[in-house]
Amino acid sequence: MLEYVLDDLDLVLTMSVNPGFGGQLFIPTTYPKVRRLRELLAGRGIEVSVDGGVKISNAGDLAAAGAQVLVAGSAIFEAADPAQAIRALRGASEVPN
Predict the structure, then answer these.
(1) Structural contact between residues 25 and 53, judged by C-beta atoms closer than 8 angstroms
(2) Max Cα separation, the chain?
């Protein structure tokens, strides 16, 4: 479906939980979905964003799969130190060149 609107996009949001409420578990089939999106969007300057279940434990794998924007809610707002949680997520999602 995206192929028909590629020229109109600047970001594709991929849901990695069932939309509706926070704190859900991450759906692992998101990884191949993000990889396929990166292939489809190659060379177009369109960002891939992932929303839902994003945590320190999966941020690196999501970035390696091709996600450029990670939306994290519970991982930050339920943390004892939200600022530290943000730093940890940023560090975990850095992809080496």
Answers:
(1) yes
(2) 44
